[in-house]
Amino acid sequence: SQQGEEDPQALSIQEGENATMNCSYKTSINNLQWYRQNSGRGLVHLILIRSNEREKHSGRLRVTLDTSKKSSSLLITASRAADTASYFCATDAVTNAGKSTFGDGTTLTVKP
Amino acid sequence: DGGITQSPKYLFRKEGQNVTLSCEQNLNHDAMYWYRQDPGQGLRLIYYSQIVNDFQKGDIAEGYSVSREKKESFPLTVTSAQKNPTAFYLCASRNTGLGSPLHFGNGTRLTVT
Description:
The complex is a heterodimer of chains A (112) and B (113).
Chain A: E1 5-7, E2 10-14, E3 19-24, E4 29-37, E5 43-50, E6 55-58, E7 61-66, E8 71-76, E9 85-93, E10 100-102, E11 106-111
Parallel strand pairs in A: 2-11
Antiparallel strand pairs in A: 1-3, 3-8, 4-5, 4-9, 6-7, 7-8, 9-10, 9-11
Chain B: E1 4-7, E2 10-13, E3 19-25, E4 31-37, E5 43-51, E6 54-57, E7 64-66, E8 76-78, E9 87-94, E10 103-104, E11 108-112
Parallel strand pairs in B: 2-11
Antiparallel strand pairs in B: 1-3, 3-8, 4-5, 4-9, 5-6, 7-8, 9-10, 9-11
């Protein structure tokens, strides 16, 4: 079964708006990572947050992690049409750190 | 340039035939992974290998086989026993340190008719 579940499944916004997507997971983790996938391509790593961290920033990306709720959020500020893609969270569980488990992703459409 | 190469990009096979998907990396990563992605869905782990000559089953290994004879290469064979092989297959690699990110190839889209 999938470890992570993203919410919403699809999100459509105007350029310049902020986009927030959420990820929930089931087991204790060492870290959580967010990836981006353009249509028909491989995934690209965006940002990692460790289990002892609560918030991280990278450019227009802000990630939060709440281990008590087993959830994370990815915020993209001032979105651009080029941000249109699918976004996935992936967790490395404490019990099997060599194996990353992905959620079903959020498809983001940014309209120019 | 360092990276992961998957070939071919598109592959067509008849039902009942085995087919091997290629994955090569020049990133000097110890760990390599195969994922399957169906339309509109996330990635499901087929097999992974953390060191040469060793590999483990993922969540959906039935109907697939792998080998890891070289650090750079992790080919995936989709056998005729795989009941629904049409999918997008992604190969990835990473260092084995905790929290190392996965680096992905651009995938092979396999269609079996």
